[in-house]
Specification:
- It is globular and about 50 Å long.
- The N terminus is likely disordered.
- The protein has one domain.
- The longest helix has about 30 residues.
- Helices cover about 85% and strands about 0% of the residues.
- By secondary structure, the chain is mostly helical.
- The chain has eleven helices and no strands.
């Protein structure tokens, strides 16, 4: 099975992938990926929204992956990621921001997240995973500011559960729509093309900024 199979027969490709990785390996990969999306503030590398939608589609097309199991598992991954980020902010935040390298790299995103947090307060904690920039940096900022952990968790964890359940369900049920199912290979091709394009744009923008610096 190769990449062409993904676009021609996505259901068959995904079933082969789950079989090759093992069911436990597939669940572990998805859990770790969602955890890393917010678990390490200096490593925001995983597109969580896209991954959850894809996981929902996987569950719809695969005979093995279970949506009722994916929802609590990936909600737990998101919640533990936010807890990790909160602790990093509380224990290491000052040291990270004193580093010229990380301060320069993170300052713009931290400023945007701080603005969101100041504007929406507890609502920003609840909806942090629905905010592309905020999902990584709002828990970090809450840790730096020593916002009470229990209150942070009270607003943050339910938001993580709703985020995971909503996007997984959207992917799962959209894949069952006849029109979407018929053209899923084309949709996958467009999605991969868009992802590659966004990575290239980000790379060249970063390179140009470094050149100006």
């Amino acid at each position: 099975m190769n990449l062409v199979s993904l676009f021609a027969h996505p259901g068959l490709f995904l079933q082969h992938w789950v079989t090759a990785a093992g069911l436990g390996g597939a669940y572990a990969f998805l859990f770790i990926a969602i955890f890393l999306e917010t678990g390490v503030v200096i490593l925001p590398i995983v597109p969580g929204d896209s991954l959850l939608l894809a996981a929902g589609i996987f569950a719809s097309l695969s005979k093995d992956l279970s949506l009722p199991l994916l929802i609590p598992l990936l909600a737990l991954g998101a919640a533990l990621g936010d807890q990790s980020n909160y602790l990093i902010g509380k224990l290491l935040g000052d040291k990270i921001l004193k580093s010229p390298k990380w301060k320069k790299r993170l300052s713009g995103k931290l400023a945007k997240s701080e603005e969101i947090l100041n504007r929406f307060g507890r609502g920003a904690m609840f909806f942090s995973h629905f905010i592309p920039v905020g999902r990584t940096f709002i828990p970090f900022l809450c840790g730096i500011s020593e916002f009470p952990w229990k209150r942070f968790s009270l607003f943050n964890v339910p938001g993580d559960c709703i985020w995971a359940a909503a996007l997984l369900s959207v992917g799962y049920y959209c894949a069952k729509i006849p029109f979407v199912k018929k053209y899923l290979g084309l949709i996958a091709l467009v999605a991969v093309g868009g992802l590659v394009a966004s990575v290239l744009v980000s790379f060249f923008r970063s390179k140009r900024k470094r050149g100006k610096g």
